[in-house]
Structures are given as C-alpha cells and as structure tokens.
Amino acid sequence: MLFNSGNLLDEINLRIIDILSKDSSKPFVEIAKELQISDATVHMRVRRLIAAGLIRKFTISTDSILLGYDHLAFMGINVHPGAADRAVAGLAEIDEILEIHEMHGRFDLLVKIRARSLDEMRDIVVNKIRILQEIVGAELMTVLKTTKEEQTVSLKKMIAAADNTDVALY
Hints:
Shape: elongated
Distance between the termini: 23 Å
Order of helices and strands: HHHEHEEHEH
CATH architecture of the largest domain: 2-Layer Sandwich
Number of domains: 2
Largest sheet: 4 strands, antiparallel
Structural class: alpha+beta
Number of strands: 4
CATH class of the largest domain: Alpha Beta
Number of helices: 6
Strand order of the largest sheet: 2-3-1-4
C-alpha cells in the first residue's frame, strides 16, 4: 500500500530517502546542495518523514564477513497450529537470527541466521532454535554465495514517476 498522506512522497522527499538509504551519515548540508534546496528544508522534511513513520531509524550497514560472521543460512520452520506468535517471540530473542518471516506454504516461518562457524551454526540450531516447544519441524538451508543483499528497495521508479507528475513542492 502506498502511503501518500499530505504529499509526503513527492519527488524531493523520495530523493532524500534514497540518498539517506545509501548513506545515513550524509550531512543535510550535502543533501541540500545535491537537491538544490536549503539545509533547513532537508531538516524539516526529514523530521516530517520520521514523524510519519516513513523513516524509522538511521543505521549503519556492516560487512558480516569482515566481522567474522561468514556462515549464513535460512531455516524453514513449522510450528504447532496457533503457536506462531509464541514461536516468533522465542526466535526474536536469539541474537544470531537476523530476520523472521511468517509464511504460507511449505513452512510457517522463515528465519535468517548468521554464525561465525559451522559449529556455532549447529549450536544455534540445536541449542537455541530446536528447543523451542512450539517448533514441530525445521529445515536448514545453508547459503553458498550471496550475490545481492539489499536492505531497502530502490526508489528510482518512484522518483521518476513523482518527477513526471509535477507534484507541488513544499
């Protein structure tokens, strides 16, 4: 669903979000120069985007392999009927689980796990995940190579569409 309350998704805001999604440490002054607007305008727009929930947080992106977490796996998990919320709550407490997705299909849940070694991956699976009472079955799928791993969706098409509609800028 497209959120467009009060023209928050105009071309300028989309471009601000796009710039910050690539480098959240980029100073507002540099963003303003790039967009040819004042830094006060950038600041005001970012505050509005935060207040509206379009920007949830500013963060960094680390290289997991350089940090020693070079083992990546996904685990499909099936849970007892009606136990998904409890299973998710238990899984969310495990630091090495990076993502939890509720699914419809072969698995009830899909989780993304990072570990420093196969021994650590085994420990996570056996001693942290499989002990949860809500789980009835699981399948670990080890990643051999990651070619693309993004945290945000590209806004290029939305920016182009906003630019073509001549949305009033404020």
